[in-house]
Amino acid sequence: MTTRETYQAVEGMYHNLNTLQSRSGNQLPFTSINYGTCTLPEGRMIIKALLDASIEGNGRLHKTPIFPCGIFQCMKGVNRDPGDPNYDLYKLALESTAKRLYPNYANVDWTGNIGYDRNDPRTYFSTMGCRTANGFDINGFGQLKDGRGNICPVTIILPTIAMEATEKYKNTDYFDARDGIANFMDLLDEKIHQAKDMLLERFEYICSQSPASAKFMYENGTMEGYIPEEGIRSALKHGTIVIGQLGLAECLQILIKTDHTTEEGMKLAKRIEQLFKDRCAEFKQDYKLNFGVYYTPAENLCYTAMTRFKAKYGEIPNVSENDFFTNSMHVPVWKEMSPFDKIDIESQLTGYSSAGCITYVELDSGVKNNIEALETIVNYAMDKDIPYFAINVPNDMCTNCGYTDEINDVCPQCGSDKIQRLRRVTGYLTGDYKTAFNLGKQQETEMRFKHSKMLRGWKE
Question: 62-84, pLDDT tens digit by residue?
Answer without folding.
Answer: 888 888 999 999 999 999 999 99
